[in-house]
Amino acid sequence: MDATVTLGTWKRYLWHMITFGVLLGCAYLLPPLAFIVALSLSLIVCPAFSDGDTWYALALPLAPAIGFFISGGDAYFSLLLTMFPYLCLLVVAAKQRWRMTFLMEILLCTGAFLLSALGMLMRLSELLGGPLFQSLSQYVVDSIRSSLFGGSVLYRLTQFGFLTVPDAYRNSAGFQLGDFVLLNPSLQKELLNMLRLRLNEGFSQWIPSVLMQGSIILGLFTAIGTERARARKAGAHQPMPSFTLLRLSRREQGFMLALCICVVLASFSSNAITSLVYALMYAAFLAVYQLLGAAIMIFMLARRHPERKVLYGILATIIYLIFPVALFLLGVVDQFINFRTSGIQPKDQDQEEE
Fold first, then answer.
1. For 286, which DSSP code?
2. In angstroms, how far is CA 2 from the centroid of its own chain?
3. Among 45, 162, 273, 295, which residue has the least CB neighbours within 10 Å?
4. Helices (H), 98-171
5. pTM score, two decimals?
């Protein structure tokens, strides 16, 4: 018996070392991947911490940070890469000592992501030497201008409809040789100016949306994974939280109504800061109801085929990415018609009817 336990322990430690090495290697070979890995590690380390793997949970966030740093990355970015998983671990540790609701755990993990991501964006803005959105736009434009294939990139963007050729340059000469495109210098200058404006407008919408939706998604699933790990450790009688059973309470519906009113009021302002706050609140409002719609969709599809729940989860993810309006409408309608209870009768009522 002791030999079996020892063998299982060594296998677990070996797996931990392999995981650490893989994450470190990915961050070293592909430094941009370190940010994605670091901001997703809470899904692994928090359940591991709740399951008793304390040292593994504490050591794993160091892997992408070390890999990014030894690849020549910025030291401040390397420290910021550990911020989100460690803050989430702090939330999990705090819940083990003090009473904390499931909603509070989600909100704290969401706030941890926002704090970490904002720190990274502030550092990026400092390195670029100006306001974030404008500096990013200028950086992309300068990279295309100095690239040998800058004309090819601009040509592809006009083909995709992201840029439009001005009427005055409809007949401008351009030469194409394979993938290499040489544009008229005046036309290229106009397209670069147009691209700068489009990117500036796009970044001001995309970055807040990705920031808020990513924080809510990771905060939610970090809390769910942590609670499930804690329930497994506590025993079979502990209820398991499930994504498909998520639903807003009356008080939470009131919060969402207040958020909707704030979004409407902020939409009338032209102030830059107010516009940024509007974009963040609007993205949060959309993300909550889209996630509720995804939970309802998976629940309804898996009602007859529970073994296909993973497949339905992948389908919901695809719809979330390409057609999120459908999930948003489903989540909103569910606040008035509870799809997860309609058509399902309690056992007592079934027995009375028999």
1. H
2. 43
3. 273
4. 102-128, 132-146, 150-160
5. 0.84
